[in-house]
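Need residues for this backbone.
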């Protein structure tokens, strides 16, 4: 095996590793050989062999580097599950975060008893779960100090300490809707030069600026005019309608969320274009001033 690697006979080294006896496949020496073969395959850009060797040696950091570098979304999803099952929580957390699976990130922090981190993570990405996680944090902290546990604030009991929390919940729904809308196709890497500007947007302020006052309730119908004529006989009762599955409410809610996500996406794009135009204007102004200074110096 070592001679094959020194002679750059990658295929021969791979064939030798595949002949490893079953009882030696998980030995330290075998894992080290798989890692060496993975590094050799990576040097010649044989990514398929690199992936196979990394899987055989449980090289989760190497797989995370490989999948993230080549944009293998499905690979990162599978890696997150494998790392979680093998107890590699750091790799699992990063993989879940890269794929936008923030629910699993929070569950992983809770499962490893990292409750403070889970609460702060939920405050940023999952406001709807802050209350439940803070409750778990309080129960855990009360075993050490009741006073400290009572000092923890939550949105339900201390709304004044969580400004714009309702707006943050709307932003969460925007994120989840956008994630579902792009889950099948993903976002092409070619959009990075323009999409990166969205990272600097203040979504809370954007949602507040787009929101309006609630619509006024409809006026009640006017009572019927008095008449001396006797009222007409009541119509016969209609036959009962056949029961059917009531899914109109769910469909309406899904349509509302989709429309809201599209409106927010358009608003984000408009804000990005505005910022880009301002940056271009500043750059042109700087160039003009520099030209004037150079002309004055001459």
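Answer:
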């Amino acid at each position: 095996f070592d001679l094959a690697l020194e002679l750059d006979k990658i295929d021969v080294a791979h064939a030798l590793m595949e002949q490893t006896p079953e009882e030696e496949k998980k030995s330290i020496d075998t894992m080290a050989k798989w890692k060496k073969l993975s590094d050799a395959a990576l040097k010649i850009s044989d990514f398929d062999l690199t992936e196979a060797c990394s899987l055989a040696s449980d090289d989760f950091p190497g797989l995370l580097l490989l999948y993230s570098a080549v944009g293998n979304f499905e690979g990162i999803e599978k890696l997150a599950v494998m790392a979680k099952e093998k107890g590699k929580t750091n790799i699992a957390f990063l993989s879940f975060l890269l794929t936008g699976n923030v629910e699993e990130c929070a569950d992983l922090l809770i499962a490893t008893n990292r409750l403070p981190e889970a609460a702060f993570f939920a405050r940023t990405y999952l406001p709807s779960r802050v209350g439940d996680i803070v409750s778990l944090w309080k129960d855990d902290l009360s075993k050490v100090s009741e006073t400290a546990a009572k000092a923890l604030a939550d949105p339900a009991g201390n709304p004044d300490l969580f400004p714009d929390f309702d707006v943050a919940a709307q932003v969460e729904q925007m994120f989840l809707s956008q994630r579902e809308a792009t889950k099948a196709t993903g976002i092409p890497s070619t959009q990075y030069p323009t999409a990166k500007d969205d990272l600097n947007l203040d979504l809370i302020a954007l949602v507040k600026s787009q929101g309006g006052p609630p619509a006024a309730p409809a006026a009640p119908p006017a009572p019927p005019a008095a008449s001396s004529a006797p009222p007409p006989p009541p119509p016969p009762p209609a036959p009962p309608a056949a029961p059917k599955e009531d899914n109109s409410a769910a469909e309406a809610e899904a349509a509302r969320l989709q429309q809201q996500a599209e409106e927010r996406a358009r608003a984000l794009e408009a804000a990005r274009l505005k910022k880009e135009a301002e940056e271009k204007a500043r750059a042109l102004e700087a160039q003009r001033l520099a030209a004037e200074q150079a002309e004055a110096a001459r």
